[in-house]
Amino acid sequence: MEQQFNNDQLTEHELESTPATGFRVIWREFKKDKIAMGSLIIVAFIILGSIIWAPFIDKEALMKISLLDEFAKPGENGFILGADQGGSDILGQLIIGARNSIVIAIAITVITGILGVAVGIICGYYGGIIDNFFMRLIDFIITLPSTMIIIVFVTIIPKYDVWSFILIMSAFMWVSTARLVRSKALSESRRDYVSASKTMGTSDFAIMFKGIMPNLSSLLIVELTLNFAGNVGIETGLTFLGFGLPDTTPSLGTLVSFANNQTVIAEKWWVWLPASLLILVLMLGINYIGQALRRSADAKQRLG
Amino acid sequence: MWKTVVRRFLIMIPQLFVLSMLIFILAKFMPGDPFTGLITPQTDPARLEELRQQAGFYDPWYVQYWHWVTNMFRGDFGDSYTFKVSVASLIGDRGLNTLWLSLVSVILTYLIAIPLGVIAGRYQNTLRDKTIVLYSFVSYAIPTFVLALIFLYIFGYQLQWFPTSGTVSVGEDPGTWGYFWSKVYHLILPAITYAFLATTSIIQYLRSEIIDAQTQDFVKTARSKGIPMNKVYTRHIFRNSLLPIAAFLGFSITGILGGSVFIETIFGFPGMGQLFIQSIMGRDYSVITALVMLYGFLALLGSLLSDIILSIVDPRIRIE
């Protein structure tokens, strides 16, 4: 009922002024939905905060082992969030971990986004053999037990570093974006403006990336936001198991993985719980933002 | 109908071939060979070479591949060198545990998801619906390992309602009721965790199906015949919306297998997911290849099952 009412309001509003476009629509949606606005502020705070704060943390001092501070409780010995087994500050690890997890998830999202969009648009636009080939490939990769194969890759790659992890993850994560973009590009390529461009002799490349792609932009923003959340989840999960980021690059998953120790999970909640909750808040926040973006991309669902 | 099923089966053959090729290549890249584990200071290098010769280690790759595939069809996956038993029997033991866990998880998932989905769809935009939508949003967004850890911490360690690891308490004799109950008791927490995560798609699908069905002609007809709304829901809408849900069963299998790596590791549940992590840690490559192959095969089988159920349930899909 509420949605109905808002739609009525919207039409009334639109009669008076020209409809808002682009980012103004998104902004209006966020202004209308308080939870989405809250999520946006929290997520922006976590992302910017960790990226800005992390370089100021002295990594050497952080990793120094001091047995006196072993499992210091929050507030003890000047540790705001307590310390872990080696007496390292949890807060510092949390911020560096969050920064690493976020930056790596962004890198994976960008790589899979570019690959997925390119393959998706090309398949949707050309169709035929190219489309058939890629769709079979994508169907196949989607059914693969990707978690296990990523873990196998991680263990057999010599000289394993952050970049190898990003590439391995990307190799499995581009498929869903490609599939989504392809289905939209397919219907988009049959529109009149594409046929008009073709008759005017515009090159295929220009039609695909200057004609079709901008028309998919709202969909892409939503997809990339949700992918970003998914990538944070998968990266921290794999690191938690011990097959994600190398030890030299601590992530939120590293902190959570302390919970693999029975005494830690049962009695030293401050070691692993903050990182778990931070992951949880990030995931809920980004997903909620994604939903608000999805609503603003679809005029029928808009609240604002 | 049969045409669709047969065609779907035929698609699976090249997929299986590519999967086995991929795993074979991965296995080739893994350091060491099946005899690395046998090496002791007393091992004679010449004898080791001989063993390698015999096992066809120096054969061309296609011969090796052929051996590997044919052995697999006979159920021979080689031996595990950390557990010192054949891979097949090892996976058989662990697989049974995972099978039980999956079974309980799937039953729980459907038991939770179907009522919630129906209520959310029927009472759309009420408080009940909004609560259920919120629940499904949270369960969609939360990563498996975070939820599993939080559940383990709250229900296992803090409240101590459930055991925190294993499949059965020590001291129970197999075959007794106590043994059976202890097994079920150990399954509940991991299964609830899994079900919590898996309900999302079923709830959302069922909800939107029911909302869509409300405005369809067959519902109007039923209403105009004077059937009370309650009956329209249980007899007409529910049946129509429930059928496609059956098709989710295949995907559920795939989902459980993927999640089992995390859930079994966290709950210390000796199933295939935990075995996988243990073999990776112990570099037990014959077990790893067998497990990845098995998981891949089961995932393909799951999607095959889903497609077949869907084509039985929904005749429109058969016409392509």
UniProtKB/TrEMBL annotation, chain A:
Does the keyword Transport feature in the UniProt annotation? yes
Which InterPro entries would you find in this protein's record?
BP-dependent_transpt_permease, MetI-like, MetI-like_sf, OppC_N
State whether keyword Transmembrane applies.
Answer: yes
Pfam families per record: BPD_transp_1 (PF00528), OppC_N (PF12911)
Mind telling me which GO cellular component terms the entry cites?
plasma membrane
Q: One GO biological process from the UniProt record?
A: transmembrane transport
Superkingdom, natural source: Bacteria
Assigned keywords, A-Z = Cell membrane, Membrane, Transmembrane, Transmembrane helix, Transport
What does the record list as coiled-coil region(s)?
Answer: none
Membrane-related topology note: Multi-pass membrane protein
Q: Where in the cell is it found?
A: Cell membrane
Under the heading SUPFAM superfamilies, the entry gives: MetI-like
Principal place of residence: membrane
Domain ABC transmembrane type-1 span(s) in chain numbering: 98-290
Instruction: Kindly give the PROSITE patterns that the UniProt entry links to this protein.
Output: ABC_TM1
Q: Which residues cross the membrane?
A: 35-57, 102-125, 137-157, 163-181, 269-290
Per the record, the similarity remark reads: Belongs to the binding-protein-dependent transport system permease family.
Task: Please give the name of this protein.
Answer: Peptide ABC transporter permease
Q: Which organism is it from?
A: Candidatus Kurthia intestinigallinarum
UniProtKB/TrEMBL annotation, chain B:
Q: Which domain of life is it from?
A: Bacteria
BP-aspect Gene Ontology terms: transmembrane transport
Stated membrane topology is: Multi-pass membrane protein
ABC transmembrane type-1 domain residues are 95-306
* Cross-referenced InterPro entries: BPD_transp_1_N, MetI-like, MetI-like_sf
Query: Which Pfam families does the record cross-reference, listed alphabetically?
Result: BPD_transp_1, BPD_transp_1_N
Keyword vocabulary terms for this entry: Cell membrane, Membrane, Transmembrane, Transmembrane helix, Transport
Cellular component GO terms held in the UniProt record = plasma membrane
Where do the TM regions start and end? 9-27, 99-120, 132-155, 184-206, 242-267, 287-313
Q: Where would you find this protein in the cell?
A: Cell membrane
* Gene3D superfamilies per record: MetI-like
State where it is primarily located: membrane
Please give the family membership noted in the entry. Belongs to the binding-protein-dependent transport system permease family.
Name assigned to this protein? Peptide ABC transporter permease
